Amino acid sequence: MNLEHLMDTVPAYAKDLKLNLSNVLAQPELTPQQAWGTALSCAIAARNPRLLAAIAAQAALTIPPEAVEAAKAAAAIMGMNNVFYRFHHLTTNEKYATMPARLRMNVLRTHGIAHVDFELFCLAVSAINACDKCVDSHEKVVREKGLAEENVLAAVRIASVIHALASVFDAEAALASA
């Protein structure tokens, strides 16, 4: 199912999300690669199969294959890192923060696209996964690489809409099977 057809299935109570999706994917603060890479990485993090398939299909038509793979890699590595570093935040034992992660993270340097774009994808996924350390770290990097707060917020808007749509599609599927 393509994205337009999927959006036609959004229930009336979530109409704002449908309207917001088209707006956030066309924000002037982001390049098409930044917008669609963010959307794809966030759809992976949000875990709704229908939404992921539709976003992935549209992203593949809009951005280069290396950006598609980088968005997937950002979701994968942040899926791991967000759990690991969120644990640091959740525990009061400060010793854990002094210990090495000992987790492979080579893709942070070998993703094949503009570093700032990859970092933006990581930031958006970290927002979905509620990892304050990763959000803070990646926000600092994208700002150091030249993006403004407006660019960051544009990516987080995408994350918020994608996450909310995934929740709606999951809820509707659960209600239909109950």
Annotation keywords:
178 residues; AhpD-like; mainly alpha; globular
The CA-CA distance between the termini, in Å, is 24 Å
Could you say which structural class the secondary elements and strand pairing correspond to? mainly alpha
Q: Quick one: biggest sheet?
A: none
Low-confidence stretches: none
What is the domain total for the residues? 1
Total strands: the figure is: 0
CATH C-level category: Mainly Alpha
Give me the CATH fold name: AhpD-like
Going by CATH, what is the homologous superfamily? AhpD-like
What's the tally of helices?
Answer: 9
Compact overview of the structure:
The protein is mainly α and 178 residues long.
Topology:
Elements: H1 3-7, H2 15-24, H3 32-46, H4 49-62, H5 65-90, H6 107-110, H7 115-128, H8 132-144, H9 149-177
Structure report:
The structure is a single chain. The chain is mainly α and 178 residues long. The chain has a single domain (3-7, 18-177), classed as AhpD-like (Up-down Bundle), CATH 1.20.1290. The protein has nine helices and no strands. α3 (32-46) packs across α5, α3 packs parallel to α7 (115-128) and α7 packs across α9 (149-177). 42% of the residues are buried. The model has no long low-confidence stretch (mean pLDDT 96).
